[in-house]
Design brief:
Layout lengths: L1 E5 L4 H12 L3 E6 L2 H4 L8 E5 L7 H4 L4 E4 L10 H13 L2 E9 L6 E2 L4 E2 H7 L8 H13 L5 E7 L3 E3 L6 E4 L12 E3 H13 L6 E7 L1
Parallel strand pairs: 1-2, 1-4, 2-3, 4-5, 5-8, 8-12, 9-11
Antiparallel strand pairs: 6-7, 10-12
Helix pairs in contact: 1-7, 4-6
Organism: Lactiplantibacillus pentosus
Pfam family, one: NAD_binding_10
GO molecular function, one term: oxidoreductase activity, acting on the CH-NH group of donors, NAD or NADP as acceptor
Length: 215
């Protein structure tokens, strides 16, 4: 299978890239920095392209089976999550290939007895003001995707804490924030990579979001 990974040098993207290569897939890694792309594993099945994801054309997208959007942004550019999702979807309307996989945020998950959005907990703490725009815009991204019925997309949200680390046993959920037996809500980058590749190889979700966490 041929997979394009946008944001391939970031925490999630690099873990997904590494695992995709280990599983024998052909990977096109998209990133803005040639220097960071050069740090990805040397592999005959890896092609790197230093370019802005917004410059990707329909012919480029159609050369692959799956596009994974793992782009990360700073809070001041958090709106780019929505903009990139909109651009990718607009180019692929009424097309079945490639499939789009979006790494979303935890803010759009529900939590508590009243099933409120986790983003509201983030917003309520003044200490989070510097980065709250990211989960807010990732929620907007999911809300947009939920209106899309003529593109094959899937979204995957991590738990409250999305951190570098190896894969663990995985908990799966739909729209509720997951925690382990100790009440910890964490998804390692390796755990996310396994969930993404498993979904890519054996699709279980279409035009919906699911969530994964360390077990």
């Amino acid at each position: 299978m041929k997979i394009m990974i946008i944001g391939a040098t970031g925490m999630a993207g690099s873990a997904i890239t590494k695992l995709a290569l280990e599983r024998g897939h052909d990977v096109i890694a998209i990133g803005r920095s040639e220097e960071k792309l050069a740090n990805l594993p040397v592999n005959a099945h890896l092609e790197t392209r230093a370019k802005d994801a917004f410059s990707l054309t329909l012919p480029e997208l159609q050369t692959v089976d799956v596009v994974v959007d793992a782009m990360a942004t700073g809070p001041d550019k958090a709106y780019l999550h929505v903009d990139l999702a909109t651009k990718l979807v607009s180019q692929l309307r009424e097309r079945q290939q490639p499939r789009l996989v979006f790494i979303l945020g935890a803010g759009s998950l529900t939590t508590g007895d009243d099933a409120h959005l986790f983003v509201h907990d983030i917003e309520s703490d003044p200490a989070n003001a510097a980065f709250v725009a990211i989960p807010q815009n990732q929620l907007a991204e999911l809300n947009f995707l939920r209106t899309v019925t003529n593109v094959d997309w899937v979204g995957i949200s991590p738990a409250a804490n999305f951190t570098p680390g190896p894969a663990t046993a995985i908990q799966y959920g739909h729209d509720t924030l997951l925690t382990d037996a100790n009440g910890d809500s964490t998804t390692n980058s390796g755990t996310m990579a396994v969930a993404v590749l498993d979904e890519v190889e054996q699709p279980q979700h279409h035009q919906e979001r699911f969530t994964v966490a360390n077990q």
